Amino acid sequence: MTGMRSDAGDTPAVSASGIHRTAEAQHLADIRERIFAAAQRAGRSPSAVTLVAVSKSVDAQAVSRMRQAGQVDFGENRAQELRRKSQALGPGIRWHFVGQLQRNKVGDVVGTATLIHSVDRWELAEPIARRAREAGRVQRVLVQVNQADDPAKSGCAPDEAGELVSRIRELPGIVCEGLMTVPRLNADPRPVFRGLARLRDDLRGRFPEVQHLSMGMSGDFEEAVEEGATIVRVGTALFGSLTTV
C-alpha cells in the first residue's frame, strides 16, 4: 500500500480504496498487509501471527490513537513505563513486556503484562512466579534465547533453554508458552529464526505448552513470519514519525 503519510497528525490519509484513514490506521494497515503477504508466501495463516506494537518511543496518546485504529497488543521494554501507560489508558489493551526485566521491577510487570517475553534465567523466573502467586495469577512468559550467540544480547544459550523451561514448569504461578530471540544487527536473521523454530519444535515434544515464537522486529518481521514467528514486535515501522515521547 502506498501513499502513507506519517506526518498527518489528525488529518486523514486516503488509501488506495479511497477510504479516509488516520495516519495510525494507515500505518497499521500497511504492516498488517506485509504480515499477510509474508504468511501467504510461507503457506501459513496470517491469523497465526500476533502483531505487538512496540510503543516504547511514543506517548500514551499515540498508543490510544493506535488502539482506536484497531491495534490491541502493545509492548513496552521498561517496567515503570509499562505501569504508567497501563494506568493512564485503562482496560482494552493487552500489554507485553519485551525488555530486560530486573528482579526489583517484577512487581510493576506481573499482572500488568499479559506476556513477559524476556525470561532468560531461573533467578528471574522464581520471583515472577512468587509475585504471581501472591496476586492469585498465573503469569505467562517466554524464555529468551541468545540464538545468535551475540555477546551484545541477553538470553540463555540454546542448549540451556530446555533445562530452564523444565524448571519453570515445576513452579506454580508461571507458565512458559514459547521462546523469544533477537538476531544480530546487520546480519542475515534467517538462520537465527530457523534455529529458534527448530529449538521450539524440539522442546514442544517434551513440553506441549511451548508453542510461541516471538521473533522479528521492524527490519526483519517479514522474514520472521516466513520462518514461523507467531509473534512479531514492531515499533519504528509501525509508529514511524508519529508523536513521540
Name the features.
disordered N terminus; alpha/beta; globular; 245 residues; TIM Barrel; 18% strand; single chain; 9 helices
Break the fold down into its secondary structure elements and pairings.
Blueprint: E1 13-14, E2 20-21, H1 23-41, E3 50-54, H2 60-68, E4 73-76, H3 79-89, E5 94-97, H4 106-109, E6 113-119, H5 122-134, E7 139-144, H6 158-169, E8 174-180, H7 190-206, E9 212-214, H8 221-226, E10 231-234, H9 236-239
Parallel strand pairs: 3-4, 3-10, 4-5, 5-6, 6-7, 7-8, 8-9
Antiparallel strand pairs: 1-2
| Distance from first to last alpha carbon | 27 Å
Tally of individual domains: 1
- Which structural category fits the helices and strands? alpha/beta
Beta strands, count: 10
Low-confidence stretches: 1-18
Mean pLDDT: 91
Report the total helices. 9
Structural commentary:
The chain has 245 residues and is of the alpha/beta class. Helix content is 39%, strand content 18%. It is built from 9 helices and 10 strands. The chain has an 8-stranded parallel β-sheet. A two-stranded antiparallel sheet has the order 1-2. The protein starts with 12 loop residues before the first strand and ends in a 6-residue tail after the last helix. The model is unreliable at 1-18 (pLDDT under 50).
Task: Give a brief outline of the structure.
The chain has helices spanning about 25-40, 60-70, 80-90, 105-110, 120-135, 160-170, 190-205, 220-225, 235-240, and strands at about 15, 20, 50-55, 75, 95, 115-120, 140-145, 175-180, 210-215, 230-235. By secondary structure, it is an alpha/beta fold. The protein has a single domain (about 50-240), classed as Alanine racemase (TIM Barrel), CATH 3.20.20.
